[in-house]
Amino acid sequence: MLSEMAAHDHLSLCLCDLIRLLWSLLLPCLYLCMVLTALLVLLVMGVRMWLQGARSARRAREKCPAVAFFHPYCNAGGGGERVLWCALRALQNRYQAVSFVVYTGDQGVTGEQILDGAWRRFNIRLPRPVKFVFLRHRLLVEAGMYPHFTLLGQSVGSVFLGWEALTEFVPDVYLDSMGYAFTLPVFRYLGGCRVASYVHYPTISTDMLAVVRERNPRFNNADFISSNPVLSALKVVYYCAFALLYGLAGSCSDVVMVNSTWTLGHILALWRAPNRTAVVYPPCDVRGFLDAPLEEDADRKGHRVASVGQFRPEKDHRLQIRAFRRLLERRGAGPEREALTLVLIGGCRNEEDEERVLMLRGLCQELGVADRVEFKLNIPFDELKMELAGATVGLHTMWNEHFGIGVVECMAAGTVILAHKSGGPKLDIVVPYEGSPTGFLADDEESYADAMERILALTPAARLEIRRNARQSVGRFSDQEFQASFLAAMEPLMGTLEQ
Predict the structure, then answer these.
(1) Overall domain count for the chain
(2) Coil, strand, or helix at residue 104?
(3) Is pTM, for the whole model, over 0.70?
(4) Which domain holds residue 99?
(5) pLDDT in tens, 64-79
(6) Which of 9, 85, 226, 290 has its CA at 20 to 30 Å from residue 498's CA atom?
(7) CA-angle at 28, arms to 24 and 31, nearest 5°
């Protein structure tokens, strides 16, 4: 008993000594924190003054303000790059006394070659030259660098890449046109720039959080995580923390432009800047598809179902093949089956995409539909036009597609579009035009098969009416509409340059 009391008293004394030690360290720790905070503030102010001095010297030398676009992959040929060149063309036409800069990570090319590529790929020629700042560390934002914690790794990498860009050239207005939100505070608070952003796709979305919470296996939520409650809980915490940081970074933007109503909803939920946010639909070059005549397809011997999209996991080509198999099963054997063909048209960027195509071919063999499925890889534009002009149905299956340029192209080409009932296709594209339908929506294997069967059962005249409505509706996504919306959104920032 006495020994227990002695042990208890000894423990109490130890705890008292520990508390006194911690209390004695409290004040020195507070002083140290204050000193470190003051040093950090002085460092930030010093860096800011240095960068603003560099901008003032450049303004005095060039006699004009500068607007810079952050687009590390500007020499690529996707829809995001078309937005970049259309935006530059619009601003150059409106603001003659402003110079323009593009930060790019492309190496081994010259500025002239990049501009020539924009002319060849998009038929866009800028009114006057732009300056290119070639960044050396684009590898920092590539997903392959971060096999785990990819979102966080790419975002931290973008901060360093943004710092490299800022030290190379300090603009008056900075516009992130690729979705690197974590560069916004770097340019705003260190560079003293006015900042804007064009968001094609949120880095993280409330839908992604829901997928992890519900332990739903998808391309961005591996099976070994979704099947493990502990790993799923940890990933939810990681996603929530990242979403908070992403929202804080994005809220630094003076002007926010988003490419669709779906993206708008997520950006408003995360960035919380409704008064500074506007929808600016991307410019879709559909002129080449509008040349195809719209006629009744009664004389077609068979029906082709065409899908257009890169062979990436999120495009969900597996769903297309399974839904098509279901349609063939309903048709039975014989001539009705032989009259249907699924054509998968898309680009292969690398070996991973090529392996994915091999897996899809294997799935066709496994399901017994290989004889009715064709693969068209990296085909030229003229062949793409021919394929879409000869297709009855245009097929799209990506869940929560942020916009859907391929959907717009199918509608312009004259197919009856069947798109996923989510994202941009549901909210912005496959919507009634003057009260009339422009296409169909589905969300799983059964509903896709039902919709395809319903489209094929329509009379040629009824299909023609839907195709006409769809083609007329795509005028909302023209270059001219983009230019007007983009200039209106940028006016508050560009107006500050004229003061």
Answers:
(1) 2
(2) strand
(3) yes
(4) 53-283+480-497
(5) 999 999 999 998 877 8
(6) 85
(7) 145
